[in-house]
Amino acid sequence: MTNKNLIDLEAMSVEQIDKLVRKARKIMQSPADYRHACDGKILATLFYEPSTRTQMSFQTAMLKLGGRTIGFDNPMNSSVAKGENLKDTISVISGYADVIAIRHPVEGTARASSLYSEVPLINCGDGGHLHPTQTLTDIVTLSCEKGRLDHLKIGVCGDLLNGRTVHSLIKTLAKYEGNSFVLISTPELSVPLYIIDILENNGCSYEISHSLAEAIVDLDMLYMTRIQRERFKSPEEYEAQKNVFVLDSEKLALARQDMIILHPLPRVNEITVDIDDDPRALYFKQAQYGMFGRMALILLLLQDEDFLIPYREVKVGVHRCNNPKCVTQAEPYLPPYCYEKLGMEMCDYCDKRID
Ligand code: CP
Fold first, then answer.
1. CA 163, CA 258: separation in Å to the nearest integer?
2. Do 152 and 264 have their domain in common?
3. Ligand 1 pocket, mutate which of 45, 48, 51, 224 (most atoms under 8 A from CB)
4. Least C-beta-crowded within 10 Å: which of 118, 126, 228, 262?
5. Residue 260 and residue 148 share a domain
6. What is the count of structural domains for the chain?
7. 124 and 20 in a common domain
8. In a domain? residue 352
9. Is residue 353 in some structural domain?
10. How far is the CA of 172 from the centre of ligand 1 (A)?
11. How far apart are CA 22 and CA 17, in angstroms?
């Protein structure tokens, strides 16, 4: 099955990802050539959760391509406040726009929305699940700054449990030959087991570390992440985790001169502000690379008939997903789609095992 929806970058082949990165680099070299590429086209940005970079870089990307934008950044100013369900909102907006970019706090919402959209739909973050266009941002940055996406030693640090950017990044870079990973977190915030499965199934070497000072010494890239306060059950649990890993000048002094520091942002205090002036700190430049990546994505989805994104085979399951964070709980009319992995039934929306 193929379509024009970007739900998970993992679904794309390495060739497709490389094509996106090449297109982004081409746009960067001569942006004027693309000034009218999307004349007359409309992007809808539906942001049910706060955002600075993803929302505005998508809007800027469409404006720079000559298109226009509609949307909301607070669902309470839309008919969602009157109880409109996701299906109805998407069915209507897909009649107004040529492409939809959606962010939602509930896992699996992008996939659920894609079932009701007549136009390409892009996942801009669904709860703690996935954030594929952040990964696009990260790999465009890596390609421009390191010159390759393979044979890299990658450290990821912080909230590896709830950080959807980390999940998408690991899944994508695991496809490239020779990449190895150092997973730096507290035991409570370690990566979900399904990410470990992906690393093992792709034959990637990985280490688990509880010390940033030890792990930093031999990395090509350090990917810092924020502890995701909004995903904790209680303030006390967040307080116990919030300042465990902080990149400061003392720790950075242990790193290689050619290591680059990325961060999806927003930063809270996991990187001290004095690091910003170090040439290895690329997180603000990374946000700008993301805009070019999103321009490339919009162009390929709208204009390249061959740019079809594969999607796994799914079936209607007997049981519904019981993950309380899954969209199937919030939108009960959704068909209980599932897929099989290693003999287990997995929810097609949130990727959790159905018990
Ligand atoms: N990196 C990222 O998703 O930032 P925003 O939440 O500001 O969009």
1. 25
2. yes
3. 51
4. 118
5. yes
6. 3
7. yes
8. no
9. no
10. 19
11. 9
Tokens (6 digits) for 117: 């959209």
Which numbered atom of ligand 1 lies nearest the CA of 287?
1
- Cα(263) to ligand 1 centroid in Å equals 10
Assigned token pair, 218: 């031999």
Q: Using CA positions, which residue lies closest to atom 1 of ligand 1?
A: 264
Distance 344 CA to ligand 1 centre (A): 33
Here the CATH number for the domain that contains residue 180 is: 3.40.50.1370
Query: Ligand 1 in contact with 54 (CB < 6 A)?
Result: yes
Report the chain's terminal Cα–Cα distance, integer Å: 26
Q: Give yes or no: residues 139 and 174 share one domain.
A: yes
In a domain, 153, yes or no: yes
167 lies in the same domain as 247: yes
pLDDT digits (tens), the chain, 355 positions: 779 999 999 899 999 999 999 999 999 999 999 999 999 999 999 999 999 999 999 999 999 999 999 999 999 999 999 999 999 999 999 999 999 999 999 999 999 999 999 999 999 999 988 899 999 999 999 999 999 999 999 999 999 998 889 988 999 999 999 999 999 999 999 998 889 999 999 999 999 999 999 999 999 999 999 998 887 888 998 888 888 999 999 999 999 999 999 999 999 999 999 999 999 999 999 999 999 999 999 999 999 999 999 999 999 999 999 999 999 999 999 999 999 988 999 999 999 999 8
- DSSP sequence for 191-238: PPHHHHHHHHHTT-EEEEES-HHHHGGG-SEEEE----GGG-SSHHHH
The whole domain housing 338 covers 315-347
C-alpha of residue 266 to centroid of ligand 1, in Å: 6
User: Residue 2 is inside which H or E element, if any?
Assistant: strand 2-3
Query: Considering only CA atoms, which residue is closest to atom 6 of ligand 1?
Result: 51
Query: Helices 283-303 and 53-64 meet at what angle, rounded to 10?
Result: 50
Residues 254 and 304 in one domain: no
59 lines ligand 1 (CB under 6 A): no
Give the span between the Cα atoms of 236 and 231, in whole angstroms: 12
Atom 3 of ligand 1 has which residue's CA nearest to it? 54
Q: Whose CA is nearest to atom 4 of ligand 1?
A: 53
